[in-house]
Automatic annotation (TrEMBL), chain A:
Organism: Nitratireductor indicus C115
Sequence ranges of Polar residues compositional bias: 1-11
GO MF, one annotated term: iron ion binding
Keyword Signal listed: no
Keyword tags: Molybdenum, Oxidoreductase
Annotated region described as Disordered, given as residue ranges: 1-23
Protein's recorded name: Xanthine dehydrogenase, molybdenum binding subunit apoprotein
Gene3D superfamilies: Aldehyde oxidase/xanthine dehydrogenase, a/b hammerhead, Aldehyde oxidase/xanthine dehydrogenase, molybdopterin binding domain
Occurrences of domain Aldehyde oxidase/xanthine dehydrogenase a/b hammerhead (ranges): 28-137
Swiss-Prot/TrEMBL cofactor(s): Mo-molybdopterin cytosine dinucleotide
Record has Oxidoreductase as a keyword: yes
Automatic annotation (TrEMBL), chain B:
Protein's name according to its UniProt entry: (2Fe-2S)-binding domain-containing protein
GO MF term set: 2 iron, 2 sulfur cluster binding; metal ion binding; oxidoreductase activity
Domain 2Fe-2S ferredoxin-type, chain residue ranges per copy: 1-77
Keywords, comma-separated and alphabetical: 2Fe-2S, Iron, Iron-sulfur, Metal-binding, Oxidoreductase
Annotated organism of origin: Nitratireductor indicus C115
Presence of keyword Oxidoreductase: yes
Top-level taxon in the UniProt lineage: Bacteria
Keyword check for Ion transport: no
InterPro entries associated with the record: 2Fe-2S-bd, 2Fe-2S-bd_dom_sf, 2Fe-2S_ferredoxin-like_sf, 2Fe-2S_ferredoxin-type, 2Fe2S_fd_BS, Beta-grasp_dom_sf, Diverse_Oxidoreductases
Short name of one Pfam family: Fer2_2
TrEMBL record, chain C:
Matching Pfam families: FAD_binding_5 (PF00941)
Coiled coil segments of this chain: none
Gene Ontology MF: a single term: oxidoreductase activity
Protein name: Molybdopterin dehydrogenase
UniProt KW Oxidoreductase keyword: yes
Provenance organism: Nitratireductor indicus C115
Domain FAD-binding PCMH-type: 1-176
């Protein structure tokens, strides 16, 4: 859908790399994150957390001298348990209590909260609280969790499964006799989302407005307000949630967490503001975890490399509870449904299990489930290529959904709308010069390292609406977005939106969209978001939805406003409405024009100047839902070249190519930034980041000393090429692309490692591929060879 | 305990606890919240400030150690010409997204340029190791520092 | 993540500092604080009183005489990286310093603090062990000297007695034999999984090789060092045998991966040392 005819090229803001509006405050050190909020008499909170993975709380002792500064669940009542997860009869529910009172289910689970005049003092008090826990055997493995006799986390459940389901398409039995069968077990290990700003909450009761104010580092304040209202049993109009500057989210700040409820409840009990700033240790051990998937898959194929079917099981290690609102089931079903990837495979039969374990709850993290699914299928494709002695790229080409088949419904039930996947692959191939790399590989490296080249293809469902979320049985259906556009008397604009921008640059790109529709400069438009008292109902920023949904709402509201502006302009110019256009900050008719600010003045403070029958004000609210509820699909090809040391297992990425298509680019600079940032996180998943647990449930990565975050020395420079296939159904043809970068790297890097050691028998089926894992894989293959 | 230090050119005397880190004092006592804390154990670089002219991680510096010292935070660089050149390149090269790492990055960037003059990409990457940015993938940051250094080196009067 | 309470005293002379230590055995020395403060913040360690020694100017000195080099305990990683005592050991100290942690940490972290901590993965203990350094210790009752091989006792354990301060290291100036360093870490600036420093012998001085990344403190690799002195041209196979035997002593219960890393870093250090010599 093109924008209206009345826009001249001078106002062509969509497609421009406009430098970001949000930079100035950050560069000056003048931004305002939750931890930067200063309120009189504010006290700090520290949590007492469980040292035990699984146990029954026998008693919690508050020492006398601090008794009034220590709070247990009973002290925060009334509270209402809220259940997360899909609204499905088969999904077992266990509400995540803000503070544990009967059982603790993971190390780090909050048990009590303490108030101090500083964080240090609050921690001093927390150390004095004695929690007596009767230790129970812990469940640390998602597969073992479902075996008979495994200790149960939730005693009222029949076993440790949140839900079991089968995803089935075609008839897998019909390909059981395929000439090529490959079975592999693959695993993606657990990690944290690790935005550089940890979570944080400041809460207080505002007596003048009779409302509870909760500042929280969140991706979606409106949804959090709703959740808080349910948990506190408090009317929603008396709760204001503000997400101020948010230092990254990546999914990790998009669930209502126990600390948020606990702080809100505490603010209702005490007569001063309270603040909790998550520390990195808490983040690593008690925040949203992600990615832990086990796959046991069999690929059925023909000898020419055509993939016929995929069969197997997926276990998602969901941790102890289901986070509100969505819980972990989406993770599992998305993993299964994305297994066919961008291929024409027609038979799919996947048993899925969502297991409860004594670890923190799993939640969304950039790419949600798809990095795992992509890792699984793309690794299997390379395994198939190895088996058949073909170039992996060839096997991909043989199976990719071609543009002639679009729109194409995959065996996973996803509707791939448009694009040219084979062409994207060719383009990536063209950028890496495979023959030259093969030649270099053949010659060998002077320092004994091995060269590997790996490819991976991904698709990224984005901008999916009501029908899709209803299909997922989501208890909150983020099926629309709202925008309010308000022109002030001097012709400048406030744009109020329900999404939240925490690095995505939406204060800039949404202003570009409004500027384009209104014939204004983006500098005349101020985007406001992240405050339920300010912006209209929305769902926040996640699932690659904001540019599609909020961009659409902004375009729609801006157009409605432009229509009214034109009516007033035509009246002031005394010309017919159909002869005016908006451009360059004015309404024009031939050579005559009237400045926007004159129109704004008339509409806002000089109603006598308005045409008869037209109401005053320039204030429009519109909601938008894209017509294609199943979403539009961005896609891309990643090609990575790396050098790996066969003894130490240390990997260095020397080249990283991305070819991607996310439809129309609103701000190409911001799009590239999202891709690069996403790939960097994907590299973290692939090579560095992991939270292992000991057998008795102790987390083994509790600081940045043990948890490896990739830095500039680990991340390469990227080469990016865009293909642009505008979406048919969205405004401007945009597709969401915030997550895509993070989806393919584990697959591409594992394939490159596989390539480096092709023929040696070394297998790369588990992330992160740390030096130890790589070295062990290579050594294991050598030992196997010698034994044979 | 009483602590006297010069913060962004102004001498201040404050009452602090022995256990307060420099970042605690900067943020909580002086309310200079441009210095961010990403880990509180010396491993992310978000809290980098200049102590007597050199970058340190303020979360692992005892405030009382800084008696008589000169501390500069991001707020104290607003009028600094060289830093403003670095800022402009950060803006143009999209070297920030959420902005949380940015003050620490800038404090480190100015030191890298001071020490190297005109560092190349490889040097900048290696010098930035240990400064975590979760959002940008570093490419814009590295490009901005290289470009700012080049520009600053081209103007003999600067600095 | 904030430390429990402690008191703080600052000394301005060595005499004052050892006096404070002698008077109260609840006093912990703090130098750069780059290890101690993270540990205090995480509350994995605690202190009653911290004695800040960073104003002891005499501990910041580097003195080079004809025979030996003295490196003060408070010399920072960064000042060595920037060239202090650069010539003395053909750039070895500079090379080691520049790979420790990150610049902002190196700006405050000290050589002395690193050795006294005796972290099993730290860089300086291995380097100074390979250079056969002597630790100089001061207390209210005087001074003593301890060879580094005796000073390092175990992981986080040294021969430092209560009341003592490490003032610095004496290292005999060596005929510039070759040196080499091998290091494997999970990412740049992280503590090493394995770190080897080799200093080849020449003109009567013995070859010394040391390894970090073990379960205890930095360890000597005596067999391979002796082999190199006996047979300077020893072949890879022969070296590997000796190194494996040394690893068995240096790192009990090493995983196969650790063994491979150690073998690799020691071998790389030797190779580099040989190349730098020829
Ligand atoms: C993010 C990060 C990464 C790091 N990576 C590495 C690395 O890769 N390799 C590495 O080797 N180190 C690393 N370190 C540690 C760093 O090198 C420390 O600076 C060093 O280990 C300790 O020196 P310090 O002066 O800071 O000592 P402090 O932290 O002040 O003290 C350490 C210990 O030594 C004692 N002590 C200090 N000086 C004396 C003295 N003169 N006499 C008696 N006792 C004394 C203290 O009481 C304390 O027990 C890292 C640190 C950080 C924060
Ligand atoms: S907050 Fe100081 S280094 Fe992370
Ligand atoms: S911009 Fe978000 S951490 Fe760097």
């Amino acid at each position: 859908m093109a924008s209206e005819e009345s826009v001249s090229t001078a106002d062509q803001w969509v497609g421009k790399s406009v430098p970001r509006k949000e930079d100035k405050r950050h560069l000056a050190g003048a931004s305002n994150f939750v931890a930067d909020i200063r309120l009189p008499r504010m006290a700090d909170v520290a949590f007492v957390r469980s040292p035990t993975a699984h146990g029954r709380i026998s008693s919690i002792e508050k020492p006398e001298e601090h008794a009034d500064r220590i709070f247990l669940l009973t002290d925060l009542q009334p509270l209402h348990p809220i259940s997360g997860g899909p609204e499905m009869a088969t999904f077992r529910n266990a509400a995540y209590p803000p503070l544990a009172d009967e059982k603790v289910l993971f190390v780090g689970q909050a048990v009590a909260m303490c108030i101090g005049c500083s964080r240090a003092v609050a921690e001093d008090i927390a150390e004095t609280v004695f929690v007596d826990i009767e230790e129970l055997e812990s469940v640390m493995d998602a597969v073992g969790a479902l075996e008979d006799g495994a200790p149960k986390l939730h005693e009222e459940w029949p076993d440790n499964s949140f839900v079991d389901a089968t995803i089935s398409e075609g008839d897998i039995a019909s390909v059981a006799d395929a000439p090529v069968k490959i079975r592999r077990r693959l695993k993606m290990n657990r990690q944290a989302t690790n935005p550089l700003e940890t979570r944080g909450v400041v809460a207080y009761f505002d007596h003048r407005l009779d409302e509870l104010v909760v500042y929280t580092s969140s991706q979606g304040p409106h949804v959090m307000r709703h959740g808080l209202s349910l948990a506190l049993g408090m009317a929603e109009h008396r709760i204001r949630v503000v997400a101020p500057d948010v230092g990254g989210g990546f999914g990790g700040k998009n669930r209502l967490m126990p600390e948020e409820i606990a702080l809100a409840a505490l603010a209702l009990k005490v007569d001063h503001p309270v603040r909790w700033i998550e520390d990195r240790n808490e983040h690593l051990t008690a925040s949203v975890h992600a990615r832990e998937h086990h796959y046991d898959l069999t690929l059925y194929a023909r000898e020419d490399g055509e993939v016929l079917g995929i069969e197997g099981t997926v276990h998602v290690d969901a941790g102890a509870y289901a986070l509100w609102p969505s819980g972990p089931f989406m993770e599992t079903s998305m993993a299964a449904r994305n297994l066919p990837g961008s291929y024409r495979v027609r038979h799919l039969q996947i048993e899925t299990h969502t297991s409860a374990t004594n670890k923190p709850p799993i939640g969304p993290y950039r790419g949600v489930a798809r990095p795992g699914a992509c890792f699984a299928i793309e690794r299997m494709i390379d395994e198939l290529a190895d088996e058949l002695g073909l170039e992996p790229v060839e096997v991909r080409r043989r199976n990719l959904v071609g543009p002639e088949l679009m729109p194409y419904r995959t065996a996973g039930g996803l509707r791939l709308d448009n694009g040219d996947y084979p062409q994207a692959l060719s383009q990536a191939l063209g950028m890496v010069d495979l023959p030259a790399l093969r030649e270099r590989q053949h010659r060998g490296e002077p320092d004994g390292r091995k060269l590997g080249i790996g490819f991976a293809i991904y698709t990224e469902q984005s901008g999916h609406g009501t029908a899709e979320w209803v299909k997922r049985k989501s208890r909150v259906v983020p099926g629309f977005e709202t925008a309010t556009i308000r022109m002030l008397p001097d012709g400048t604009v406030h744009l109020l939106v329900g999404i939240q921008s925490h690095g995505q640059g939406l204060e800039t790109s949404l202003a570009q969209i409004a500027a384009q529709e209104l014939g204004l400069d983006p500098s005349a438009i101020l985007v406001r978001h992240g405050d339920t008292a300010l912006s209209p109902q929305g769902f926040g920023t996640f699932a690659s939805r904001s540019i599609v949904f909020s961009g659409g709402a902004v375009a729609k509201a801006s157009r409605a406003l432009a229509r009214k502006i034109k009516s007033i302009g035509a009246h002031l110019l005394q010309v017919p409405l159909d002869q005016v256009i908006v451009r360059g900050g004015a309404v024009h008719c031939g050579g005559a024009n009237v400045a926007m600010k004159e129109i704004a003045r008339a509409a806002n403070i000089r109603p006598e100047m308005l045409p008869a029958g037209l109401g005053p004000g320039l204030d429009v609210t519109e909601t938008y839902e894209p017509p294609e509820s199943g979403g539009v699909f961005s896609y891309g090809v990643h090609a990575v070249t790396l050098l790996v040391h066969p003894v130490t297992g240390v990997t260095e990425i020397i080249d990283y190519v991305v070819v991607e298509d996310c439809g129309t680019l609103v701000n190409p600079m911001i799009v590239d930034g999202q891709i690069i940032g996403g790939v960097a996180q994907g590299i973290g998943t692939a090579l560095y980041e992991e939270i292992p647990y000991s057998e008795n449930g102790q987390p083994l990565a509790t600081t940045f000393g043990d948890y490896m975050m990739p830095c500039a020395s680990e991340i390469p420079a990227f080469r990016i090429k865009h293909r642009v296939t505008p979406a048919e159904s969205t405004e401007f043809g945009v597709k969401g692309m915030g997550e895509g970068g993070a989806i393919a790297p584990p697959a591409a890097i594992a394939n490159a490692l596989n390539d480096a050691f092709r023929g040696s028998g070394a297998k790369f089926l588990e992330t992160p591929m740390t030096p130890r894992r790589v070295s062990d894989a290579v050594a294991g293959a050598r030992a196997g060879e010698q034994a044979a | 305990m009483e602590l006297t230090l010069t913060i962004n050119g102004k001498t201040e005397t404050l009452s602090v606890d022995a256990r307060d880190s420099l970042s605690d004092v900067i943020r909580e006592k002086l309310n200079l919240t441009g210095t961010h804390v990403g880990c509180d154990h010396g491993a992310c670089g978000a809290c980098t400030v200049h102590l007597d002219g050199i970058p340190v991680r303020s979360c692992i510096v005892l405030a009382v150690r800084c008696e008589g010292s000169e501390v500069r935070t991001i707020e104290g660089t607003r009028g600094d010409d060289a830093m403003n050149v670095i800022r402009r390149h950060f803006h143009e090269k999209h070297a920030l997204q959420c902005g949380f790492c940015t003050p620490g990055m800038l404090m480190m960037a100015s030191d890298i340029i001071r020490r190297y003059g005109r560092p190349d990409e490889k040097q900048v990457r290696s010098e930035l190791s240990g400064q975590i940015c979760r959002c940008t993938g570093y490419m814009g940051i590295v490009a901005a520092i290289v470009a700012a250094a080049d520009e600053l080196a081209g103007e003999p009067a600067a600095g | 993540m904030k430390p429990a309470s402690f008191d703080y005293v600052r000394a301005t002379t060595l005499e004052e500092a050892v006096g404070v230590l002698a008077a109260d055995d609840g006093v912990t020395v703090i130098a750069g604080g780059q290890s101690l403060l993270p540990m205090l913040n995480l509350r994995v360690t605690a202190a009653e009183t911290l004695l800040d020694i960073t104003r002891l100017e005499e501990l910041k000195a580097v003195r080079e005489t004809g025979e030996q080099v003295f490196i003060g305990a408070l010399v920072t990683h960064a000042s060595i990286e920037d060239g202090i005592a650069r010539e003395a050991f053909g750039g070895l100290l500079q090379r080691v310093a520049s790979k420790i942690a990150y610049r902002a940490v190196r700006n405050l972290g000290t050589v002395g603090g690193s050795v006294v901590l005796s972290d099993p993965s730290a860089d300086w203990p291995a380097c100074l062990l390979a250079l056969d350094a002597t630790a100089v210790l001061a207390s209210a009752s005087g001074q003593r000297r301890v060879a580094l091989s005796e000073f390092l006792v175990d992981a986080y354990e040294t021969a430092l007695e209560p009341g003592e301060i490490l003032t610095g290291f004496e290292i005999s100036r060596r005929n510039a034999g070759g040196w080499g360093v091998g290091k494997v870490a999970r990412k740049s600036g992280a503590f090493a999984d394995s770190l080897a420093v080799a200093v080849l012998g020449r003109a009567g001085q013995a070859t010394r090789i040391a390894l970090s990344g073990t379960a205890s403190c930095a360890q000597p690799m005596a067999r391979v060092a002796a082999l190199l002195d006996e047979e300077p041209g020893a072949q890879a196979e022969q070296l590997a045998r000796a190194i494996r035997a040394d690893i068995t002593d240096a790192h009990e219960e090493a995983t196969p991966y650790q063994e491979r890393c150690h073998l690799h870093t020691v071998m790389s250090a030797i190779t580099e040392a040989r190349q730098s010599w020829s």
